[in-house]
Amino acid sequence: MSKAAQAAELPDLKNPALYINRELSLLEFNRRVLELAKSDDVPLLERLRFLCIAGSNLDEFFEIRVAGLKQQEALGATQRGPDNLSPSQQLRRVSARAHELVDEQYRILNDVLFPLLEAEGIRFLKRSQWSAGEGGQEQWLGDFFRRELEPILTPIGLDPAHPFPRIINKNLTFIVTLEGKDAFGRNSGRAVVQAPRALPRVVRLPADRADGPDHFVFLSSIIHAHVDELFPGMKAVGCYQFRVTRNSDLFVDAEAVEDLLEAVEGELSSRRFGDAVRLELADDCPRDVGRFLMDQFSLREEDVYYCNGPVNLMRVNQIPELVDRPDLKYPGFTPRVPKQMRTAPDVFTAIRAGDILLHHPFHSFAPVLDFLRGAAADANVLSIRQTLYRTGVDSSVVKVLLDAAQSGKEVLVVIELRARFDEAANIELATQLQEAGAQVVYGIVGYKTHAKMTLVTRREGDGLRRYAHLGTGNYHAGTARQYTDYGLLTADVELCSDVQSVFQQLTAMGRAGKLNKMLQSPFTLHQGILQHIAAEIANAKAGRKAGVVAKMNQLIETEVIQALYRASQAGVRVRLVVRGICSLRPGVPGVSENITVCSVVGRFLEHARVFLFENGGQPRVYLSSADWMGRNFFSRVETCFPILDEKVRRTVVKEGLEPYLRDNAQAWELCADGHYERANHKPGEDRRAAQEWLLARVAG
Fold this sequence. Notes:
- The protein is of the alpha/beta class.
- Helix content is 37%, strand content 21%.
- It contains 20 helices and 27 strands.
């Protein structure tokens, strides 16, 4: 058969049926998170936490993804993704799936978690359960309302002089229906009460007013019970909590902007009052009141989500911190420090002896801080350069950089001002560092700086030596205990030279030079990944060892997916561990029979990006800050760095890939139709949970 005839028989890899919609795939990830709230294998208070995380994930999904689809629909956008769904089609499907998820969230909360929590003495008291009389809960909560709430609540009656107020994004608010007339003879029949964000959404009852130490009342219940007091002489016949979610994506015009910091600051204020995209409403709210609110926010019925409980589930996330019950939480663990760091006289000696791999959270974040502190205190260190994307509140990393700058070290920090939802914190961080004497730049307009890297230049003997830290995750001590990520401390001359070149790109002007070892977005990463996949195809056809194993957060980019399809068609075994969105369909006859996809969802958020190419029996292994998404390849500054040390490379494969491929407890297998099936271990088979195995083996 001729090559032309063979090509004609192959399926069209652009067929929309071969691609899973990214928005629906993201909702499927949220469904997997929600399953942890139902799992008996998860401690009870952690189950509550996962329920809250699912709610928070949905918030961001509506603020960014649904908001974007609504904008496309309003503009009449005709461009479609590889799945060929229009914005309107996506919105309809998203609405149906999201309504199912929300209903399931509240079913789990009310029918599963609340009863289990109550059995453990952790109670959420409804108004009908408050004890009455002198010294009762009703009295205490009434006093609490008048003392703590009433003075700062501002009820707004709706009439021609008081139009419907601007409601802040995601803020707890009440629509109140009224009877009677006020002192001026007014009665519009409706009023709005916004709960200031400073107020706690959950209130603990004092020990002398409760039967146990962990009895709570929702703020919404307290306001509801006493809302009459906000309208003297009138009667509140209805009080219904609601929350509106708004478009929170920032827009910075790359062509018009002159000062990126000022542009981002100017956009931040608009986030609180962007276009409404979702209305969450108490499920007992009358439909005419619901329609009134829909009209105020220009929303449709499919944008309304009726809630049988608190409209902001994330507020319940306080409970695991407030309740001192270690038996209902994950057991603590002590992250290890690699032996090289423990035994060497100083951090630079340790790194010179060989590359040091850090696998968080199983390894401590302390070595990263030790590296920075050592650089700040060492008289031979001339400069410290670092990228910062997210750092967290009261960051130890930032403190070290401030100390280094104040002591006269040359400190250069590349801060990404557009790190979503951390923009305000990063603007404040930039100001602090500049005041301390550090040089601060904001990367490249139009390209987010997402690379995680630090470069230290030190005088040694008659010359200069560079030391680098490269990572898959942020310089954030908090997430280093919650996310799985890799960091590499190295003095490799060529890798450090590459890091130097990337910093020069970010701070100066000029053409991007050829890097020695690293792949980099937006220049070489996309093409480099395609070339590696093409090499595996060639190896398979030549009878040499071929295979691709890749672990990442998201897989969306069409050209890479098509390359993986071609690899499967050529007989290359492709094993993917994709935590969240995956647009590739595995197991499609003639296209992807040799591709498997699993998602591992557990105690820690899987965040590391690890890529292995068999390379004819001499595997190449990379770690990266980038997922296989269009934005990571083309509109961000990202790094993808090889693991050069053979021992370290074996460790990455043994601990960063293999445990996930054999996980039969927390893994979910993606099916060709787009749904996920849990990979439960069979009777008589050992339970293999990657994260638990790593806790026992690496953290110890």
